[in-house]
Amino acid sequence: xxxxxxxxxxxAGVLVCVGKTSVLxxxxxxxxxxxxxxxxxxKGVFADLCRPEGRLPSPDxxxxxxxxFDHLSENLLxxxxxxxxxxxxxxxxxxxxxxxxxxxxxxxxxxxxxxVTGERRTYQPEKDLEVSFYRTRHLGRQFGRVLHYCIxxxxxxxxxxxxxxxxxxxxxxxxxxxxPLHAVFVNPLFYHNKTGQQILHDxxxxxxxxxxxxxxxxxxxxxMQHMVKTDIRRYQNTSPAILLGxxxxxxxxxxxEGEQNYDVLY
Length: 266
Hints:
Residues 10-74 form the Metallo-beta-lactamase domain. This protein is 20% helix and 30% strand. Strands 6-5-4-3-2-1-14-15 form an 8-stranded mixed β-sheet, covered by helices on one side. Strands 7-8-9-10-11-12-13 form a 7-stranded mixed β-sheet. The protein has 6 helices and 15 strands. It is an alpha/beta fold. Strand 4 (61-63), helix 2 (74-83) and strand 5 (88-92) form a beta-alpha-beta unit.
């Protein structure tokens, strides 16, 4: 029996740990900008990520779904790399890829990195870790040109799907039909909408559903948490879910070797 530790960094930032391997998805971001309101990373959490012996495991791999500020901050990534050197940084292509300054900076620092392009890419940076990127549309017509990926992490037989800002109206996510999933992570609009509920029920069928990309209570000017909690009660019999909305929130998921049954321990 193994345990997968899930630590909420903030917004859509999640740190996943099994054994000695840790993966950070969309966890170095900025709260600036307008539109979908974003809470900053809680005080002390960034420092814990940077410290060799911090309260949080230092990530071995940094993974990003797309280049929006609330998922990837170049400044914060640079600050992190001043303190720690991960095994690899995975980031989607786009205006900051290729000969862009972000990729040049990674090269100058000697940081191993992969620039993800195309419809689907799979990497296996170590024996017990596989990272797959599936190109999907970003929600909202104004973001039609954004290179956006859903990310499937398989860590020590634990499969986690991060849907980021996927356009659930145009993407059926049929790529994951029948795939045993330990957990799926969806944003509150995905979970709230009937189309998203149909995808969760008929296509993904994950053992656990986590709702992320939600402001913390003190920053929740649009009352997203209230909407999510209402939805969780509404769908508790057909699509039970856990809200990731508290600073320093974490959950442990039991992994039974050789089986596809995964349960939330706490």
